[in-house]
Amino acid sequence: MTDIFAKRLSPVMQTMTGFGPRPLYQAVEARDGEALVEGRRVVMTACNDYLGLSGDPRVAVAAAAAVKRYGTSCSGSRLIGGTLPLHEELERRVAAFLGREAAIVTTTGCQANLALTPLFGRGDVVFSDMANHASLVDAVRAGWADSRRYRHCDMRHLERQLAGAGADAAKVIITDGLFSVEGDLCRLPEIADLARRHGSRLVVDGAHDIGLMGAGGRGVAEHFGLMDAVDLYTGTFSKCFGSIGGFVAGPAEVIHFLRYTSRSVIFTASMPPASVAAALAALEITVAEPERRTRAFEVARQVKSGLGALGFDTGASATPIVPVHIGPTELCGRMWQEVLDEGVFTSVVVTPAVPESQALIRLSLQAVHTDDHINRILDAFAAAGRRLGLIPAAPPAVPS
Ligand code: PMP
Fold this sequence. Notes:
Helix content: 40-55%
CATH topology of the largest domain: Aspartate Aminotransferase, domain 2
Pfam families: Aminotran_1_2
CATH architecture of the largest domain: 3-Layer(aba) Sandwich
CATH superfamily of the largest domain: Type I PLP-dependent aspartate aminotransferase-like (Major domain)
Distance between the termini: 75 Å
Bound molecules: 4'-deoxy-4'-aminopyridoxal-5'-phosphate
Cofactor: pyridoxal 5'-phosphate
CATH class of the largest domain: Alpha Beta
Number of helices: 14
Shape: globular
Enzyme class: transferase
Structural class: alpha/beta
Oligomer: single chain
Strand content: 15-25%
GO molecular function, one term: ligase activity
Domain Aminotransferase class I/classII large: 47-381
């Protein structure tokens, strides 16, 4: 007899023990670009609080006021009993911010993506970038449409797939706006052009870029001047907006349809009052304080150029997500620990998310990182990288 637990657990546990459990599920107390890790204060680069709003007192005051007025939970689904006037206000504000007719807010960003499933019916074709977020992958899997996955940002591959799909099939292209591992952008101008030429709808998951990119913080579409080319946006309040929750924004009829058909909306409790109020306050600050975006990009630019000068490979990112390519998973684990010992908490991307030999350390840089934080990050990578022989030794000091 085969035991289902033993059968499923053993391959996964082998992968994890090869790496050591520490970077994963490490408890941290993070705020304002720093974290307390096992009693030590370190620079925090492992959360996606790009604009530093999760520690903003104005956001905290709004959340506390909502708890006082509405309690800690709605204890019900949006459909029945779990909709506050505050949810409706957030939906109006998100729609207005992105210049859409309507929006629906969901309990997490993952659930916003899962809410798309009812759109994917039999005979339809969904085209997805292979590097799309897991929740977009799951949204497509749970539907009935044919799924075609094109190689990451490979526009020729996408074009071939579109051409092969048959003129009559209803089509939709789905892509992350800013990809969360490499920090690169989707090639929206080409994707929008292909969507138009092949009669396809276009959905962009702006989880990482809405709030962060574009002069007004409206994401990659604003960055490329293509707001109107996107049919539906999904996004999250857990990164730039210092809260938790997600949204889908687009034509009123589509949003209305999703309200009554999306299982991830109907069969789960709604965003708690404090999270809705925090998201509303953060949205206002995001619009009013564009300098936060400028600072996050400036921090990233300095870190990236400093790491490059030391001899690290930071890929093609031009955003506050900076990957540092290390190589084998085991070496990446050692580098993570050495960098932490030097006072910087980072995140790792390892197999199965990337091939075994392509593990990387990922830095999320924030508007609240100071010049001192930048220096500490670069010093930590220099010392750790030299100890492990990943970068050349420091040039000898010139005698004065
Ligand atoms: N989409 C993308 C591209 C993401 O990176 C994430 C979060 N990692 C999500 C959606 C899900 O967001 P949330 O954490 O709010 O569920």
